[in-house]
Amino acid sequence: MVGNSSYHENIVIASSTLSLIATPTSGAVPPTSTANPNPAIHYASGTIYAKEQITVTSANSYTITGEFSAPTTFGTWPAFWLTAVVGWPPETDLGEWKGTADTWFNTFNTSTVVVSDIVPWPSDLSFHSLKAVLTAESNNVDVRIDFYMDNELKTTQFGSGFVGAALWLPTHPLQMEGSSGSPGPTGTTTYMIRNVEITRSGD
């Protein structure tokens, strides 16, 4: 993952649209990761991280919306998610595309207790909307998460123990290969995001 305040080849903002771009690494021998087990790095890819946090409580709820043009080619792995500020999990994936014409709605309650709902995603590369509504359950421990695509409710999941757990506002990575398959595309891949909005109701 690359990109910072002075390097913009893989992260571009234009016409109120964020583009995250993955390009194959050049050279006959790809660079390797510094993290064990030091896999080869086949792509330079853009990602951004939010600096703000949200915490669902019994006194508030959050609605998160956005529009996405997500590549679904084998070997591409864009995502849009909330993840824990301290430790892991909790995590909830508002959209995750793993190299197929589907999007995954995931909630990680523990590292092994995971709820996933897979919904067909149009492969036309037009913009389509996603929405998640996060509300505390009456037990004041768990969070109900309603997932929408193009304004249609697709599934409801429950985040165990998510109440009071600080989450980073949605991060937007464009990962490549991994769970989405290998080898990935030989050319440039672009993941576009626009009109992201986070609304808090209550306190």
UniProtKB/TrEMBL annotation:
For the GH16 domain, which residue ranges apply?
1-201
Looking up InterPro entries in the UniProt record yields: Beta-glucanase-like, ConA-like_dom_sf
Going by the entry's taxonomy, the superkingdom of the source organism is recorded as Eukaryota
Q: Any idea what this protein is called?
A: GH16 domain-containing protein
UniProt organism field:
Lentinula lateritia
